[in-house]
Amino acid sequence: MSASIDQAFVKHYQSEVQEAYQRQGSKLRPTVRSKGDVRGASTVFQRVGRGTAAAKARNGVVPVMNIDHSSVECFLQDYYAGDWVDRMDELKTNHDERLVAANAGAYALGRKTDELIIAALDGSTREAVGTASGQTDNDGLTRAKVLLAFEMLGAADVPDDGQRYAVVGWKQWSELLTIQEFANAQYVGDGELPWKGTQAKRWLGALWMPHSGLTKNAALRYCYFYHRTAVGHASAAEIATDITWHGDRAAHFVNTMMSQGAVLVDDTGAVRMRCKE
Q1: pLDDT tops 50 at residue 4
Q2: What tens digit of pLDDT does each residue of 231-244 get?
Q3: Under CATH, to which class is 5-48+63-121+232-262 assigned?
Q4: Could you write out the three-class secondary structure of 178-245?
Q5: Extents of the domains making up the chain
């Protein structure tokens, strides 16, 4: 047997990890600004303010908008997901232990990516809480609460350009299914009904999706209605794999790792919907 056969094993395993991560790893990474190939311990996301148009006198000087520019720093952290694969155990199992480890590592890092993005969203200070029926903390995810968040985004001039997203818990997803405008084909079209695999669907110009990892504070689940540019995600190292043989354990140690971070770039573009659960 070739002495370099382990390199083929590593490459095969790493391709499986990357495929699994892209397929079922992070659900939220495609919904935010993402920057790759970062060099250093942190990176900066630029935040640009709004300009104001003004008239000018004939032959006069064109007025300057003086757009505000600011930046938000995103710090990156290294994360690891490793496991032992015993040589003798491989002989006693009838499944592909490499594939099992690949999926487990990719899903663990995918969940970590989503945790970073959710933690960034938790930094938002804008909340859809009102005094009317269906808008208080004693209510779940109601039509009134969703419309209040929708109004807040519109009032803040958050672009309605197809890049709005809403992420809710599974309990809140069930509550959405009781809202006719969300579930009825007459409102959303047959091609986007939510019970076809309970996948993400479009409503109110946003892509809605359920997620099991949203923060729960006491009896309140934090759900979010946000624009893609409101959150920044950075990656210094995409998923990589290292497999080493340990003779003292008669096992391979399979390590999957990445370096990523997330930050709230623009508080205006994210609205929290607190829902009783």
Answers
A1: no
A2: 999 999 888 877 78
A3: alpha beta
A4: CCHHHHCHHHHCHHHCCCCCCCCEEECCEEEEECCCCCEECCEEEEEEEEHHHEEEEEEEEEEEEEEE
A5: 5-48+63-121+232-262, 143-231+267-276
